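Protocol step 4 of 5: obtain the predicted structure for the target chain.
Materials: sequence only (see below). No template structures provided, no constraints applied. The aim of this step is simply to have a reference model before the mutagenesis design in step 5. Sequence pasted as it appears in the construct record:
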Amino acid sequence: MNSRGGFNTKIGFILAAAGSAVGLGNIWKFPIEVSNGGGAAFLLMYLFFCFILCFPVIVSEIAIGRKSKRNAIGSFEKLGFKKWSFIGKMGVLTGILILSFYSVVAGWVLGYVFEMLRGNFQVYESFYEYTNNVKNIILYSFLFMFVTAFIVSKGIADGIERASKILMPSLIFLMIILILYALTLPNSMEGIKFYLIPDFSQINLNIAFNYGSDSEFLQIIKKIYSEKNINENLNYEYIKKFFYLKNIPEPDLLIRTGGYKRLSNFLLLYLRYTDLFFTDSLWPEFTIKELENFFNEFISINRNYGL
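Step 4 output (structure tokens):
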């Protein structure tokens, strides 16, 4: 059997591993999630779960790969765990599914590069028009897939490692440029503080045990009654500070299982503009397919608040 080849240098392996983990989602979507999630408090929780969930997985993958010198499926068979080879198959399938949408997003980005090189710096103003140009997106996506396939075909050392040594330092350089530019924007230091100084009041753990909206109503009335000068301050925002979930955004949708078309005294204060969906399925039998159907129906709704 021919040697499968491997990385020539440690830095090549580190850069390739980092390149597989740090994708467009980390650069594009992650800042939005940090902003919506509470800044540094969200970042700490993210790093915590990365350490307890992701770190053990990647260490296990590296250990299995180094020991077996096989692919994701063959590794389990060589190590004597043939029944567990389905995990490797799931890993391969996951990679295919990720690449199916990643190639499209990468095609968008590649298209942006060409547009910028042409001097079209206003392309960002027409994002939906740009992404609905099927002909161009397919062209850019196939170009991305071709480049990816070409690099992989060169093998580990001459393909993946060599490309990582060029692309990852380039990414770091671009990130430094973006950081320096961001620091020149108005209120940049406020953004830095929001990102690096945690406000743990933004982290909430809610456990509904023996909960009922009527008891919450009663507690709110008691707290308001104990306050002074309530006649001057009595408005919705004043009352809301006594809510159990005052720091949590109101839900966009609620799914009631079991065939019941009632809310059963649950979170009545927080469902003013929540879209309600009902299913005959009991909770243990509620499937991912049903959830996807509800999501698809929800996103098709033109939500008119106040109507």
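Step 4 remarks: The radius of gyration is 26 Å. DSSP finds 14 helices and two strands in the chain.
Proceed to step 5.
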